[in-house]
Write a structure and sequence with these properties.
alpha+beta, D-Maltodextrin-Binding Protein, domain 2, Fructose-1,6-Bisphosphatase, Chain A, domain 1
Length: 287
């Protein structure tokens, strides 16, 4: 694909504070693409990745990311990218790198286990970072029909299906805990012994777990091969949870870092401190 030449900022480029609003239609379109192709696409692994989870790639990933990049090129052509897939339009953002922000994209978070194998919710993730901190974020769960978004001074909103946006807050709702696929079986068993219902989910869903109906908390362990632990794509949803009033913790109950680069291998998200203390006791007992 021929490079798009852009040396000066376009006069009609949208404000970064409008990012979540401007990108909402594209995230919903990407979710529709993923949902429409579910069960109809096969895995075509990326050979350069080390694990089956990272290698997983489908036509749905490619088409969903291109839908996001089309909107991004329209509204924010000068941003830099941290995109999960190397799709054709990625090349359009490699020219000058003079943008104020970095856009983080995972068109289908959980391709192998959550999307292809159907093990729990998968997610469409789009975030904007400024100075290596999440500025605006969108996470949509296509099967469940929920889109969560946050922007500066706007709080967190949820869009459920065709309903208008409404404020969203973390809540201790039910006994279900979403866990990443990397959480050891012994930890799942310990949670179940405490009376929790444990269900698998992709990382994007885990990060916003206490905002979901009937879900009390989320726990995620980073994959062993990850250099910084929880990836930058995995931290987009954390910004939503934190803004919605959730307690977000790392190893040893320490506050989860609010930047994209501080290494952190554990993510625990609850609606209140009491639940967080209970999870930390369980996790420490299984360490």
């Amino acid at each position: 694909m021929e490079r798009v030449k852009r040396s000066n900022r376009m006069p009609n480029e949208a404000s970064l504070d409008e990012f979540a609003l401007k990108m909402t239609p594209a995230v919903r379109k990407a979710a529709e693409i993923a949902l429409g192709l579910e069960g109809r696409v096969s895995n075509t692994p990326k050979g350069h990745e080390r694990t089956a989870v990272k290698q997983a790639l489908t036509e749905a990933d490619t088409l969903a990311q291109e839908a996001i990049l089309e909107a991004l090129l329209e509204h924010y052509p000068h941003v830099r990218l941290e995109a999960e897939e190397d799709t054709p339009l990625v090349e359009a953002f490699r020219c000058d790198g003079d943008g104020d922000g970095v856009v983080i994209i995972d068109p289908i978070d959980g391709t192998l286990q959550s999307y292809l194998e159907g093990l729990g919710p998968y997610a469409v993730i789009v975030g904007l970072s400024v100075e290596r901190r999440v500025h605006s974020a969108l996470v949509m769960l296509p099967r469940e029909g929920f889109l969560f978004r946050t922007a500066p001074s706007a709080g967190v909103e949820v869009i459920a299906g065709a309903a208008p946006p409404r404020p969203a807050r973390a809540a201790s709702d039910g006994r279900k805990i979403l866990v990443s696929h990397s959480v050891p079986q012994r930890t799942r068993a310990a949670l179940e012994s405490e009376g929790f219902e444990v269900a698998p989910a992709a990382g994007g869903a885990v990060a916003i777990a206490p905002l979901l109906p009937g879900v009390r908390a989320g726990i995620r362990y980073a994959a062993e091969e990850s250099g910084i632990g929880i990836s930058i794509r995995g931290r987009v949803g954390v910004a939503i949870a934190r803004e919605a009033g959730a307690f977000v913790r790392a190893e040893g109950g320490q506050p989860f870092p609010d930047d994209l680069d501080t290494p952190c291998r554990l993510l625990s998200v609850t609606a209140n401190e009491k639940d967080q203390e209970a999870l930390q006791r369980i996790l420490e007992g299984e360490a």
